[in-house]
Design a protein that fits this description.
- With 87 residues, the protein is an all-alpha fold.
- It is 84% helix and 0% strand.
- It contains 7 helices and no strands.
- α4 crosses α7.
- The longest helix is centred in the N-terminal third of the chain and has 13 residues.
- The protein is globular and about 30 Å long.
- The N and C termini lie far apart (31 Å).
- 7% of the residues are buried.
Length: 87
């Protein structure tokens, strides 16, 4: 599982979107450290996100992310990331 995730991450980072993200690491860190970012991390932790990643449980991952982005903090965080990426 870890190798699959690493392989997918490596392929993504070589893509155009991955290269765009790599160039905005400081902005992403700032957004992640914001109040909304901290709220989202807490919500994901409580939803068992890390365990779902370890187990490769895509349904649980989708459910956790879906619930989080429906919150005010999650929606604002997603909007900030979309603006950062020019979408």
């Amino acid at each position: 599982m870890d190798n699959q995730v690493s392989d997918l991450a490596g392929r993504f980072m070589e893509s155009e979107d991955g290269k765009r993200i790599a160039g905005k690491q400081e902005d992403i860190r700032r957004i992640a450290a914001s109040r909304d970012g901290e709220d989202v991390k807490t919500m994901l932790r409580k939803a068992g996100f890390e365990e779902a990643v370890r187990q490769g449980d895509t349904a649980a991952l989708r459910d956790a992310v879906s619930r989080v982005i429906r919150t005010e903090s999650g929606a604002r965080l997603l909007k900030n990331l979309q603006e950062l990426m020019g979408r």
